[in-house]
Each structure stands twice: as C-alpha cells, then as structure tokens.
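Entry 14. Ran structure prediction on the chain below.
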Amino acid sequence: MEINKIYNENCLITMSQMPDNFVDLTITSPPYDDLRNYNGFYFEFEKIVNELFRVTKNGGIVIWVVADATKNGSETGTSFKQALFFMKIGFNLHDTMIYYKNNPMPTAGKRYHQHFEYMFCFSKDSPKTFNPLTEHCRYNGMANMKNRGKNGELNYKKIERTTEKKVGNVFFYSIGGGISTKDNIAYQHPAIFPEQLVIDQIKTWTNENDLVYDCFMGSGTTAKAAILLNRKWLGSEISTEYVEIAYQRIKPYLQTLTLK
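Output, structure tokens:
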C-alpha cells in the first residue's frame, strides 16, 4: 500500500490492506462516549483493536489517548474498559502514562477540574525500541541504594548516579489556540493533540524510517510529527473535511521529508 498518505476512509478499510506485523507505532486519540458517532460515523472499537493487534509488529506499540465522559452523575469508565479489552486480546499494558493539561477549561459541578487524560501504552510483546526522554539530575556521583529483601532484611548496593535520568510517566502540556500548535488551520478540527505530545511519543518508541500510523488522523498532527522526525507514516480519516485540513497543514513540511 502507499506510504506517507492519509486514506479518506474508515480505518478498518485501511488496516485490511495492511499485511500482518506492519506498523511500528500507532498513536491516536479515538472518539469515545458522547463522540462515538463521529461526524455521523460509528466507532467500532473492538474490531479496530483486533486489527491493530494484527498489523502491529512484534515489539510494536500502540499509544491510546482516552478519557471518560460523565453521564448520569458518574464517570463512564470507558478508559478502563478499553484497556482491559486490549489486554484480553493479547496486548501488554506496558505503561499507564498521563497526559496532563497545564491549562484546562474550568468545569462546574462537584468535581475538581479535569486536568488529565490517560495515555495507555500497549505493546505487542516486549517493546523493541525505547529511546527514553531524559532530564537533568540534581545529584551525581556514588550513592547507596537501599532495598528490602523478601525476608524483610535491608540490602545496600553501591550505584553510580548519572547527570541524566528518565522522565516520569506524567507528561505536562499547555493547550489551546497558538499553543498546541502554531498551525492555525489545525484549529478547524474540534480536538487536536498537543504537537509536542506526539513528538515525544514518536521519539520514544521508534527510530528513523519506522512506520507510524494514526487511525483517527484528524487535523494531521501525527503526520506532521512523523515528517519532522524522519519517520514513515500512514493515516486514516473518515471525514473528508478533516483530510483536507490535514493535507493543507502538512503541505509546507512535506519538502523536509528525507526518508531513504
């Protein structure tokens, strides 16, 4: 199938054209709860996840960004139900990461402001690629690491601290007009990824020339990030309107594509 293209169709049709073990990383935010009828199209969750398992390479990753609506006074629990289904069909729940919004819209009612969404990291077997983001350590040099043995005894081991350490699994992003992206056309889509979120995950789980897929491409954030990071990419988007927005958005960046 043609690579570096957004297919204007249901993602089930796109994935049906893919061979087994084809995609290195899928990163997407699916429609859920009140958004299940997406521009008039129904979200067939279980069929989609089964196809994602088939087309994902052994060692490949799916980053699934999802939250819960509140209905009849209760959060739906959709996020947890979906995670359990991924595990049921064979994915590992490799990490439960948090996408934390520094500046969310205020909410009313008897709940605290909703600041986060889940970024579930599902792996097919053990991840084949891990390029962790790092941050500066305050201390370096030698230190004693203390841990408790199975019989309750304390054990000490000399370790060398480095100047860099892996970041935590809570990722902080500011969102909104002019912040999530500088591409104004993207805001014609009602719900866009922070660009940096996608960049961070692509850097972590793939290498150059790996194939990145977004089964709900929306405004084209995944395609743009893949282009800038020299990855191959594919997308599915059932809305013709959003496909046109995405192509207009990524057009200035296509000339930077230098894949071998």
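The chain is about 25% helix and 30% strand. Will compare against last week's run tomorrow.
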